[in-house]
Amino acid sequence: MSVKDLPLISRSHLDKFVNIDYAIQHAQSSTWKALKVKSDFDISMEETQNALKEYAESKMTFVILYVDLVDSTKLSMTLPVSRLATIIQSFTQEMSMIISAYGGYTLKYIGDAILAFFVVDLSSPDNLYLRCMNAIQCACSMIKVICLGINPILNQYDYPELSVRIGIDVGENAVVQFGWDTHTLDGKVVLKDPHFDILGYTINITAKMTAFARPDQIVIGQLVFDLLDDKQKHTFIPLKISPEVWDYFSNNTGGIYRLYGSLNKIEDKQEII
Asked: Domain map of the chain by residue range?
């Protein structure tokens, strides 16, 4: 995959606040180090839990981002377990850093997929649009970092290249507590922190819509698409999906909830799934 094959949306006014060149260089260095020496996997969920604690037992509007590795089963059959773990860890760490750079939070890791969220402040008129754009910009940067940062290093070792599918949608979700995170010292519990999670329709629909994306494509829901300006909308195309495999309804229109896929080239066409 080359730069010209990246989603068209990534060639507009993105990367204003995130140094994408640094992110690419960091991914190259970290991936090389992980494969050559040892994987340095250092991710804490403390920031995520602190953010969710503010909205405990309440409903909030979140932009949900779901990123999933393509053909991970093929990777697992091709690579030794130790190498597979190293590559997955490098991938998740770099993606998590990008999520944080765009103001998002990593909610959880689901195998080789990552679920993230961006908090929407509805009291601010432009915040919904800004958070949706943050998520789209984040997704574009993820694809760039994989294409230009991680994959060139994997190529040096004759490992399969990585590609991802990314889904983005927005909606109201509930923040709920699921048990406790305990900290022990000498076998005794010294600290208990509540563990929070997000439940809602948006979480479920975003994970399902991601499956309709092609490798290195971003799929957004109708609510996100409707917020974009005309120029941004022209970088996406409606996905023609059979009602037999996608029958989610929109509360706003009463019809099937539309999905839109990012274009890599103006002449791109999306076949019926």
From this structure: 3-262
Low-confidence winner among 73-77, 101-105, 132-136 (lowest mean pLDDT): 73-77
Return the half-sphere exposure (C-beta side, CA atoms, 13 A cut-off) of residue 130. 14
Q: What proportion of the chain, given as a percentage, has pLDDT over 90?
A: 58
Burial 144-171 (b: 16+ CB within 10 A, else e): bbbbbbbbebbeeeebeebbbbbbbbbb
In what helix (H) or strand (E) does residue 59 lie, and over which residues does it extend?
strand 58-69
Burial of residue 239 (number of CB atoms within 10 Å: 0-12, 13-18, 19+)? buried
Give whole-number Cα distances, 230 to 97, 133, 183, 249, 269, in Å: 30, 14, 51, 24, 19
Mean pLDDT of 15-29: 83
Nearest to 214 by CA among 265, 158, 160: 265
* CATH classification code of 3-262: 3.30.70.1230
Task: Output the CA angle 32-147-128, nearest 5 degrees.
Answer: 115
CA dist list (Å): 139 to 37, 99, 171, 218? 29, 9, 18, 7
Tally of CB atoms within 10 A around 177: 13
**Tokens, residue 177:** 């507590």
Residue type, 93: Q
| CA–CA gap between residue 50 and residue 32 (Å, rounded) | 32
d(CA 196, CA 180): 9
Indicate the pTM of the whole model: 0.89
Beta strands in 93-216 (DSSP E): 105-110, 113-119, 164-185, 188-199
> What confidence score (pLDDT) does residue 227 get?
95
Closest to 212 in 3D by CA, of 171, 169, 273: 273
Q: What are the Cα distances from residue 111, in Å, to 28, 181, 205, 230, 259?
A: 23, 20, 18, 37, 25
